[in-house]
Amino acid sequence: METLIEKQPSVYAFGNKKADGRRDMKNLLGGKGANLAEMSRIGIPVPPGFTITTEVCAQYNEEGKESVINRIEPEVRDAITTIEETMGAIFGDDENPLLISVRSGARVSMPGMMDTVLNLGLNDESIKGIIKMTGNERFAWDSYRRFIQMYSSVVMGLKPESKDDLDPFEEIIDHLKDKRRIDQDTQFTVQDLQDLVYDFKDIVQKRTGKPFPNNPWDQLWGAIAAVFDSWNGDRAIYYRKMNGYPEDWGTAVNVQAMVFGNMGDDSGTGVCFTRDAGTGENVFNGEYLINAQGEDVVAGVRTPQQITFLGSQRWAKLAQVEEEERKESYPSLEELMPDIYKELFEYQNKLETHYQDMQDMEFTIQQGKLWILQTRNGKRTGAAMVKIGMDLLKEGLIDEKTALMRIEPNKLNELLHPIFDLDALQEANVIAQGLPASPGAATGQIVFFADEADKFKYSILVRVETSPEDVEGMNIARGIVTARGGMTSHAAVVARGMGKCCVSGAGALKINYKTRTLKVGDHEYHEGDWISINGSTGNILEGKVATKEPVLSGEFAELMELSDNYATMEVRTNADTPKDALIARNFGAKGIGLTRTEHMFFEVDRIKAMREMILADTIKGRKQALKELLPMQRNDFEGIFRAMEGHPVTVRLLDPPLHEFVPHQLATQKELAEELHISLAAVKGKVAELEEFNPMMGHRGCRLGNTYPEITEMQTQAILEAALKVKKEGLTVKPEIMVPLVGTVEEFNQQKAIIDAMAQEVFKKRKDTVEYSVGTMMETPRATLIADKIAENADFFSFGTNDLTQMTFGYSRDDSGKFLPIYLEKGILKHDPFEVLDQEGVGQLVEMGTQLGRKTKSDLKIGICGEHGGEPNSVAFCQKVGMNYVSCSPFRVPIARVAAAQAAIS
Ligand code: ADP
Ligand code: MG
Ligand code: MG
Predict the structure, then answer these.
(1) Choosing from 501, 865, 878, 888, which is the catalytic residue?
(2) What distance in angstroms lies between residue 727's CA and the mean position of ligand 3's atoms?
(3) What is the pLDDT of residues 328-339, one digit of tens each?
(4) How far is the CA of 161 from the centre of ligand 2 (A)?
């Protein structure tokens, strides 16, 4: 049967101020393709070309190469014809050949995808045409040898044999340089370049067993297939996992007419940003090279020059280049080609306003004509993200909601990292100076290879330059140093995206991969030596330099305020000590959602009394020991109440299995026996008695308080006495007493009766009262099922999603390390459910518990205090089910505040 549905095109053309695609078609055309189309639409000069859709990639993965190529061939041939007409050149022609680039491009820019192939279409015939057209034999042969080099490595997989081997092509180049006694590529003669082409082709045949393809169409199909294949390459898979991007997105392929930045001194290529991607400062900046092509700027082979005059002066100061030398050898584009600069400046302005966000652009100048090759929302550090967002808001380019929604909450983490202590910095010995490529402070041991970044706990990856293969190791390392490359080098861009500290282009470093050494002047450093790097100044320092906590400044504070204006849930913190409570207050926590009292018992002076209590055989003995613990607990609570300055504090009664408090080693058991004046056998006996087959489901939580009510009594007394004391000091105190691990109504009710009785006793004795509430942790599946009944007596619920996840999945938190990684790897689970709340399963229990609880008490206060309370997706879920607050660790409070605002907006 014929279908009437019109076939979806596989190919979308752009160029000549027109385009089939648009910016909002990223899912179909990939980010690069959608933006090339958009730029063309709004009149920015883009070399003509077309995009093969991501849907074709999906078909390719399903049906295989042959079938897909057959189907799209007519459309691709038509699209090439259109480019030929626009450019007035013919693909593969020996008179007037068209050359093209083949570029990958997923929805979001992914370092794992196939590298771009430039100059495709060159062969032994079309080279003649290029020579004839340009009259520039040097340029033609140089382009040809670059093409073979690129195509062979990217498409045919010709790579160095081992990691400290040179690239086979670089080896041939070096060999020829030695023979000819020259040291620059630019010194090659035309004959040299021609020799290189034939030597290159020989090595391709030798290493791959296949001849280098001469037919341009074979070249093109090879490249297209390689782009699709790269979607399932190791690098791409790793990057997808790291960022949680789904596998079915696929990549598009962009095919585009070449423009040449290497046609002489009136040509060049560069990269620029509409604002500073490291700091967020509102200054146009970037780098370029004269007479260069494609990745030359990023690859760090030559020292790139700054685009703006201001940038050039700043650079010269850091690179210690005198003004005269700067002007002579490294002038800015603004000085060298003022007209082109003006045009570029206008485009960057236009693009930033059009996209309403900081743009990262690529451009090429061919014989005095400017072409834009790419624009995208620029990767940036956490600090730049905040500053740019708040600045764009102030400039009126975006509104408050947009500003808030653009923040990636997890990226705020970077702003909470330690920074170098100024005094320690002053005393530190500077090894070398590079460029401040990605701000921050990092200290670690030197490694020279990305795949060895995990050799030390804290490593600094030191490379001549980095490449996409290194991304995994860069992510593991604490910081990154490169000897070559500028502010837009691969290392710099990737590091900023990861928020990782990076110093690039430290030219004084002489790195020897074979001996694994780093030489600066006559100092030599080895693998494993400690260094510190300052990504904000570009300094590389000897040894470990001390760090301190960051201060949260201007725009960050503004962002927090803005978040609170929109958020409807409160953000509390999980804090067990006054110190943590203070940190959280500084980050804006509006109370404590969980104080774990057991942490207070682990301190040296207390563990003894605790053990005495546990080892006691009688109630009397236990009460005696508890009496010793009482003042200590009271003291802790006072500190916490004071730190929270009138905000509510939820204190959880003792929760962990008792065996965690007793010594398990003979030596410490002996010590304890001596201290308590009892026999070693008695200690051993008690320890054995406490041994449980499954402690996580054993004698813990409210089962402790129900079997040993005196523990609940002592803790209640300590909490309320502390509250009364702090109240006397003139502060408001709002204690909330929380009963853990409840599963039945009676479990809770009996604990509550004990708490209330003790409260009356304390109030009577002290002749004063304080308002307190008693609630429960919702962390067993059963509790969520009978939540309506628990709510009859409970003042609040707090979902303890760590235990709830453990018990719903039946995964022991302590043993899940054995299988969770494999489950994630195999895709059995999408996320670690202890990190990201399982909304599908555990979430149902949370939702049901909330609804049942509110059915009984419509204003029941409900929150979450598991690790999930600071995870943005889970925060959004908490908003959806109608919680009053989320509680998370102190350093996640700012993240949760933004996440809560975002959840309220959407
Ligand atoms: P990436 O995604 O790694 O940035 P690109 O596809 O943007 O890869 O290309 C790599 C380099 O090649 C960039 O510098 C880009 O500007 C350049 N380039 C790509 N296509 C062309 C072209 N048609 N003409 C000139 N330069 C090109
Ligand atoms: Mg690019
Ligand atoms: Mg628990």
Answers:
(1) 865
(2) 30
(3) 999 999 999 999
(4) 27
